[in-house]
């Protein structure tokens, strides 16, 4: 039996301002993510809407950050640099779930919140490093 062919689109999903699809489709966990490099001292990653609750963080360090002494990541909201994570180690390639503040998970955001990554380095300046931060979240 052949599957039906639809000649007309059933619906269209438009991305929001940061290029991701809309969150208000209902009943789903949403994901936003963005990569950053050693050359990004600070980088705005993505924005979550008021009422969003973070359910999970993941950090994939694809290429280790190689500053001479310190290689850490802070994740904040533009006002508080370490609101969501402080001094997460970036010196070795790998997959990281630890280091994010549990108190900020399953707590609704009060306002639309832009997430900002800050790469902290000391010693000889880094010339390598790439990581991707992934944030899962819900609206109730």
Features:
disordered N terminus, 8 strands, 140 residues, mainly beta, four-stranded antiparallel beta sheet, single chain
Task: Report on the architecture of this protein.
Helix content is 0%, strand content 43%. It has 140 residues and is mainly beta. The strands form 2 sheets. The chain has a 4-stranded antiparallel β-sheet, with no helix packed on it. A 4-stranded antiparallel β-sheet has the order 2-7-4-5, with no helix packed on it. Mean pLDDT is 87; it is low at 3-10.
In short:
With 140 residues, the protein is mainly beta. The chain is 0% helix and 43% strand.
Topology diagram in text:
Elements: E1 30-37, E2 42-48, E3 53-63, E4 70-76, E5 85-89, E6 94-96, E7 113-122, E8 130-138
Antiparallel strand pairs: 1-8, 2-7, 3-6, 3-8, 4-5, 4-7
Q: What is the straight-line distance between the termini?
A: 40 Å
- Helix percentage: under 10%
Structural class: mainly beta
State the total count of DSSP E strands: 8
**Strand numbers in spatial order across the main sheet:** 1-8-3-6
Question: Over all CA atoms, what is the radius of gyration?
Answer: 18 Å
Q: Which parts are unreliable, with pLDDT below 50 for 5 consecutive residues or more? A: 3-10
**Mean pLDDT across every amino acid position:** 87
Which sheet architecture does the biggest sheet show?
4 strands, antiparallel
Strand content: 35-45%
Helix-strand topology string:
EEEEEEEE
Tally the helices: 0
Q: What spatial form do the alpha-carbon principal axes imply?
A: elongated
């Amino acid at each position: 039996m052949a599957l039906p062919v639809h000649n007309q689109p059933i619906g269209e999903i438009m991305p929001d301002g940061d290029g991701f699809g809309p969150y208000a489709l209902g009943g789903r966990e949403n994901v936003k993510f963005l990569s950053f490099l050693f050359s990004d001292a600070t980088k705005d990653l993505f924005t979550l809407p008021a009422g969003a609750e973070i359910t999970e963080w993941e950090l994939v360090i694809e290429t280790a950050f190689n500053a001479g002494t310190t290689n850490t990541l802070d994740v904040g909201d533009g006002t508080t640099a370490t609101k969501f994570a402080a001094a997460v180690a970036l010196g070795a390639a790998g997959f990281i779930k630890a280091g994010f503040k549990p108190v900020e998970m399953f707590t609704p955001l009060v306002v639309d919140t832009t997430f900002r990554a800050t790469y902290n380095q000391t010693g000889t300046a880094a010339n390598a490093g790439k990581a991707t931060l992934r944030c899962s979240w819900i609206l109730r």
